[in-house]
Write a structure and sequence with these properties.
Elements lengths: L2 H16 L10 E5 L4 E3 L3 E5 L2 E10 L10 E7 L5 E8 L11 E8 L8 E6 L26
Parallel strand pairs: 1-8
Antiparallel strand pairs: 2-4, 3-4, 4-7, 5-6, 5-8
Length: 149
């Protein structure tokens, strides 16, 4: 196991321990927009004291000579879709080691999230993250079979 993987496991264990405290919780919806060359996983959000820790992973889709993105934009988005607050997370270069295909990020914020608000992540290009639209192909399926005539 390389040093970065070990550090990621330690961070994950620390965040899990920090989040094991009792208190009110809010389900946080998160979205991520990657690119053709780099995938961006949906961020995870953990409460740590009076802060939120937002963590996630960026991976290179294939071996290429493209430089990896240097930072992410994270947005706290209202129920109506308006960005309320933003933060940036730095990314270490992917392929510092020959076998490295991914890098992790973590940022702490003092955002107050209420039910129905969203956290969006995207590569920071100096403009707001694109809005993820719901899939149009999703069809509601009844939980029980219709009665037979």
């Amino acid at each position: 196991m390389n040093r970065i993987s070990s550090m990621a496991l330690l961070l994950s264990a620390a965040l899990t321990a920090a989040c094991a405290s009792f208190g009110p919780t809010v389900e946080v919806v998160s979205q991520a927009s990657g690119s053709a060359s780099f995938s961006l996983g949906t961020p995870s959000v953990y409460k740590s004291g009076d802060e939120l820790a937002i963590v996630g992973r960026v991976c290179r889709r294939s071996r290429s000579t493209l430089l990896s993105p240097s930072r992410l934009r994270l947005e706290h988005v209202s129920m109506g879709g308006q960005p309320l607050e933003t933060a940036q997370a730095g990314l270490t270069a992917i392929y510092d080691n020959p076998d490295q295909a991914c890098t992790d990020y973590s940022v702490r914020v003092r955002w107050r999230i209420v039910q129905g608000e969203t956290i969006r992540a995207c590569f920071d290009r100096g403009r707001p993250c694109p809005v993820e639209t719901p899939a149009n192909a999703v069809i509601a399926v009844p939980a029980t079979a219709p009665p037979t005539p």
